[in-house]
């Protein structure tokens, strides 16, 4: 009986197979493209992270000379921009897959890399200008020389990307606070992150995921606030001038100095540094 | 911090939120129709085969009215933004595809194609960057059809139609062969496809039960013309 059923002439089967062959081609093309873009997004994420680490290393390098903070920051930003050039090339490479209606088809695929890139770019921008990276500047960066965007930059990716920046700035503030002249920097960072948090708040209901980022930003802000508070308490406790406190801090830090590549140890190093002021 | 930058962004995001609300309203209409049609079609499990056309005819006007909703959505979605919003109506569309496919199978024993679905729902070719029936949604609808047919095979027998499982079995095997052609990824479609084999198995069991007891029309070869 079963055999009889199976041997029935089935033109409907041919129609179905023909149709599904078509669906396969379409799905294969979509899956292949999505996979390729996923890989590129991951590469962009990892390059962006490297850029962020590079920036941290450059601005908190113990061999940076005190009193040249601005210069150090700007130079670090320049190196950061250089390392981001490769990412720009990658975005340019995938732009042909992101034209017209296809952009939103793959937006979620490239979103992680895009946000990480914006975070790195935002960090470099902050180091150079002490300001928040404007949306228009990111879109301009992700455009051809003649100003044609590689793809329309979504507000959501921009805002979520720069929102992550506050975490990096917190790290920067905490490690800067123990360096000479770092407390002033930490206060600047504190004010900046506070402003960021206030500006982003309006977007929390509108952008999915922003609410969560705001919580992280709030935590980061708290950490910077607590650290600057601790410093300020000590400043008053010692009644010392900022320079004197710098010296105290670096004396304290030099006890841990070996693994961070600080030269010399203890008192000697401190008095050397004080002489330079 | 450039306040103007943020204000501009805020205005645009506000507009998007408004669009989302409008789309939600339209999609809700489609969703309600989709649900109500599925509710109507559920009666096939308790209706003798001969009376199925009557059920199908009550669904037809609702299908026709879906054209208004697809048109309304297509005119709300900004150019090139189809994929951005599509998630909102995926489920509704999958339900409609399922209903259409079920009607089509009950009417003439064949599979409704994707272009046919688009035509029935009045989807126009030049809407393609605003509203179209995504292949994935179509395939989800077809998988629902197979799920439904395995139930129907059982219930038709209960109602005394011993030939229905044979018609269903042939059709579902063809569909299964079709789905086997696809290179599915580990997503929702893949998981649902993996569940199809249980439906196929269930239908096979019904076919086996019926043929073992020789309850079906002896000239099995003529099954297809009997629907």
TrEMBL record, chain A:
Residues 256-277 are annotated as: Disordered. The keyword tRNA-binding does not apply. It comes from the Eukaryota. The keyword Nucleus applies. One of its GO terms (molecular function) is sequence-specific DNA binding. Keywords: Cytoplasm, Nucleus. It is found in: Cytoplasm; Nucleus. GO terms for cellular component: cytoplasm; nucleus. PANTHER family: TRANSLIN AND TRANSLIN ASSOCIATED PROTEIN X. Belongs to the translin family. This is Translin. The lineage of its organism: Eukaryota, Fungi, Dikarya, Basidiomycota, Agaricomycotina.
TrEMBL record, chain B:
Keywords: Coiled coil, Cytoplasm, DNA-binding, Nucleus, RNA-binding. GO terms for biological process: RNA metabolic process. GO terms for molecular function: RNA binding; sequence-specific DNA binding; single-stranded DNA binding. Gene3D superfamilies: Translin, domain 1, Translin, domain 2. It is found in: Cytoplasm; Nucleus. Transmembrane segments: none annotated. GO terms for cellular component: cytoplasm; nucleus. Residues 6-40 form a coiled coil. InterPro entries: Translin (IPR033956), Translin_C (IPR016069), Translin_fam (IPR002848), Translin_N (IPR016068), Translin_sf (IPR036081). Belongs to the translin family. This is Translin. The lineage of its organism: Eukaryota, Fungi, Dikarya, Basidiomycota, Agaricomycotina.
């Amino acid at each position: 009986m079963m055999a009889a059923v199976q041997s029935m002439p089935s033109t409907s089967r041919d129609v179905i197979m023909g149709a599904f062959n078509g669906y396969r081609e379409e799905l294969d093309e979509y899956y292949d493209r999505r996979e390729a873009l996923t890989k590129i997004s991951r590469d962009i994420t990892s390059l962006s992270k490297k850029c962020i680490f590079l920036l941290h290393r450059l601005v908190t390098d113990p061999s940076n000379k005190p009193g040249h903070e601005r210069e150090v920051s700007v130079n670090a930003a320049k190196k950061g921009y250089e390392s981001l050039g490769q990412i720009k090339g990658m975005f340019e490479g995938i732009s042909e897959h992101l034209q017209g209606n296809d952009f939103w088809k793959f937006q979620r695929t490239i979103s992680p890399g895009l946000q990480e890139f914006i975070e790195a770019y935002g960090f470099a921008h902050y180091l150079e200008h002490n300001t928040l990276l404007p949306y228009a500047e990111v879109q301009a960066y992700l455009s051809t020389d003649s100003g044609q965007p590689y793809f329309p930059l979504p507000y959501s990716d921009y805002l979520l990307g720069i929102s992550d920046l506050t975490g990096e700035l917190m790290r920067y503030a905490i490690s800067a606070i123990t360096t000479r002249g770092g407390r002033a920097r930490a206060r600047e960072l504190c004010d900046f992150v506070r402003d960021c948090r206030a500006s982003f708040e309006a977007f929390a209901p509108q952008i999915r995921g922003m609410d969560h980022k705001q919580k992280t930003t709030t935590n980061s802000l708290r950490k910077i606030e607590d650290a600057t508070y601790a410093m300020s308490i000590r400043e008053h406790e010692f009644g010392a001038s900022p320079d004197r406190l710098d010296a105290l801090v670096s004396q304290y830090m030099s006890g841990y100095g070996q693994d961070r590549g600080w030269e010399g140890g203890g008192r000697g190093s401190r008095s050397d540094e004080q002489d330079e002021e | 911090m450039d306040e103007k930058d943020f204000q501009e962004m805020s205005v645009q995001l506000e507009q998007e939120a408004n669009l989302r609300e409008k789309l939600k309203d339209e999609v809700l209409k489609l969703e309600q129709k989709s649900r109500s049609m599925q509710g109507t079609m559920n009666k096939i499990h308790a209706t003798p085969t001969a009376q199925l056309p009557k059920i199908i005819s009550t669904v037809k006007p609702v299908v026709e009215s879906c054209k208004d909703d697809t048109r309304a959505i297509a005119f709300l979605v900004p150019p090139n933004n189809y994929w951005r919003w599509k998630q909102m109506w995926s489920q509704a569309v999958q339900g409609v595809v399922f209903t259409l496919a079920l009607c089509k199978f009950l009417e003439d024993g064949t599979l409704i194609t994707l272009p046919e679905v688009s035509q029935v729902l009045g989807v126009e070719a030049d809407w393609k960057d605003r509203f179209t029936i995504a292949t994935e949604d179509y395939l989800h609808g077809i998988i629902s059809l197979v799920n439904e047919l395995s139930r129907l095979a059982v219930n038709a027998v209960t109602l005394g139609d011993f030939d229905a499982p044979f018609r269903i079995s042939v059709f579902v095997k063809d569909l299964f062969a079709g789905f086997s052609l696809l290179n599915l990824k580990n997503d929702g479609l893949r998981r649902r496809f993996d569940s199809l084999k249980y439906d196929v198995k269930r239908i096979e069991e019904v076919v086996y039960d019926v043929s073992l007891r020789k309850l079906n029309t002896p000239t099995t070869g003529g099954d297809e013309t009997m629907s």
